[in-house]
Amino acid sequence: MRAIEQVCSIALGKKETEQRLREIGGAGFAVGFEHDGLTYRWEAELEPRVWPGSEGGGALHGEEPPLIRTERIHQGDRGIVERTPESFLLNGHAIPKLDRAQSAISVLKEDPAMAPLYRAFSRCVPLEALEKLPSHGLQMEARFEKLRGDYQSATDIGADFRLPLHHKAELLQELFPEAFAEIEEAFQEAFPTVERLKVQRYHRVDFEGRKEGGGMYNMALSAAESGVDDWIFFYRMSSGMQRYLSFLVHLSFAPRGTVVLIDELESSLGVNCLPAVTRFLLSRAPDLQLILTSHHPYIIEQIPPSHWKIVTRKGSRVRVLDAEKIPAMADERSHLDRFTRLINLPEYEHGVQG
Hints:
Blueprint: H1 2-11, H2 18-24, E1 28-35, E2 38-46, E3 68-75, E4 78-83, E5 88-90, E6 93-94, H3 104-107, H4 115-122, E7 124-125, H5 127-131, E8 137-140, H6 141-147, H7 154-158, H8 165-175, H9 177-190, E9 194-202, E10 216-225, E11 232-233, H10 239-251, E12 259-262, H11 274-284, E13 289-292, H12 297-302, E14 309-314, E15 317-322, H13 335-343, H14 346-349
Parallel strand pairs: 7-12, 12-13
Antiparallel strand pairs: 1-2, 2-3, 3-4, 4-5, 5-6, 8-10, 9-10, 10-11, 14-15
Helix pairs in contact: 8-9, 9-10, 9-11
């Protein structure tokens, strides 16, 4: 998952911490993918990086993007980009060498041939987006009014993965209440005692009861529960409630083709909401590519083995195989039995091989 996330980050030209730059320096990768009915292959090699105290004595400051040494991009059998330290070819024609701190996908994102690739990598939901659960959001009233005109549909909001949890929920509630009602209904399926879901605005006040903040306000998801007088704000919800709300808000209206990374799906989810979460994700599976890990028997039973991937690692070489290519997985058995046989395979007998 981290490798997929890293490839997306390089494609979009995102900056990396000094530690991460050290880890990925000199790495290479090749990834094939499909977008809007077209197939692509992107290969890249990164420059080795040096740091204080290493041979070469180079120093890194703050956050920087990795340096691209070579790149090749093909759409089907047609070459789009051929990049080396000496030359840069776009659609077979030489162009001036461009910033090596930017991938060809990032630096040429306005080019008609490259724009679809940039959009494709922009539709990968990073692990942090779903796992970062802030207690509230902070917004300016003028900024919110400006945002009203930026989104024409709930899918437009769902496609903006830069929006934090509470900001996205507020926009859905205010601009597309029917969409927010769908989230509320799905949440109530897992938590039937919840009567209402709402994003509430609140202001800090001074000792005299006057609003502070100069046009700034806080907002937070909150729930009204039967038998409870006060609204339950997000920070007071259980971790399972918080995580399920994050999935619902970020993924209910994510556009078709979005790649979603979820590590340890069952984490923080109790037995009351795990089935609802699993059903929700499976309902979105026809439109999204879900890449998730789990060791929970319930989830293993719900995901067909045809979707399982077997990951092995020897040193720094990682292999990913379809489960159906493993003979021990071919028998007609329960999913859990197959999983039990899987973890007893010789590849996993002694853990990661050196």
